[in-house]
Structure formats: C-alpha cells, structure tokens
Amino acid sequence: MARATTKDDLVSAGNTTFETLTGILAALTEEQRDLPFSFDVSREKGAHWARDSNVHDVLIHLHEWHLLLLDWVSSNLAGEEKPFLKAGYNWKTYGAMNAEFTERNRGSSYAESFALVCESHVRVMTLIDHFSQEELFTRGAYPWVGGTTLGSYFTSVTASHYVWATKKVRKFAKSLDLATMVPASGTRPRE
C-alpha cells in the first residue's frame, strides 16, 4: 500500500483499511473472536506476533495508538510540548510500552475492545478533518512533528496499522478454517 500524500488519500486509506479489518472481524463468530491465537509465528518477523494472544489484544493495540496520537496532537497544539510516545519510552523501547497496553487492558472483553477501537478510529478520522492539506503534508508545518509530516503519523496510526492488524486477523481466521478440517479425534479426513 502506498503511503498517502494527500488529505483525501489519507482519509480514504484510513477508512477503507478500517472497513476491511472490521469486515474480517464480522466474519468471525462470537466464539471465534474470543479464541486464543494458535497459529505458527516462528517464521514471522516482529515481536508483535508473540505479544498478541487474541483478537482483543490486536484491537487494544490499535486503540491505544489512536490515543497516543490524539493526546500528542492535542497537547502540542495547546502549546504543551509532548513527545509522541508515552513518557519513559522511546523508539528503541516502545515494545515494552505495547506490552504495557496489552496488560493494562487484559480484563476487558472483545466487545469492549471493538467498541473502543471504533470510537477512537472515529476520533482520529475527525481530527484529520481539522487540518488542511498543507498542515498534514508539509514538512516543518509543526516543529513538534520533527523531520516528517503530520500526515505520516496519521497514516502510521490508521491505514498502516490497520493493514498490519488485518494481516494478523486473516492469519488467525485462516488457522481456524484449517482447524475445522481436522475431526475432533485428531485423524485427518479421507481424501
């Protein structure tokens, strides 16, 4: 997926990729949504493959990153200098921050995580609308953004993150389909 370079592309990519993710989630049964991930992650790269234990964890991750973005933008626009990542973390240690998000939300249900991510997605997409094309995609438009653009942060937290989540949920859904082909006795069906 090409990164958005215009406001229209940013909004379209964010909404389209979110709809794709929620469409896959809708195809899962209520029982399946609560099942632990059991697919093989040994060939996958990235700590997140081992970090997330179910669909809930993936949705919480998305929601927490929405909150990071919302807080970062609103704080800096209000004149309060604040880094993007949570206090105490940097780009070398943010994996521990992600694990903290998962642990902090361990007691919530799939339904709660789904409601949270839907609500925060709407808030992020609404926030995008408050910025002009130039504010989103001109380097240096906001000094607190650093050497990139504000739009690139929105892309990372929406479309890019949704593509990642969709890949993970698809892998899970595929593992369920394969599992249903094996009878409970553990013997393979005749060919």
Automatic annotation (TrEMBL):
Gene3D superfamilies: dinb family like domain
Regions crossing the membrane: none
InterPro entries: DinB/YfiT-like (IPR034660), DUF1706 (IPR012550)
Pfam family, one: DUF1706
Highest taxon above the source species: Bacteria
Name by which UniProt lists this protein: DfsB family protein
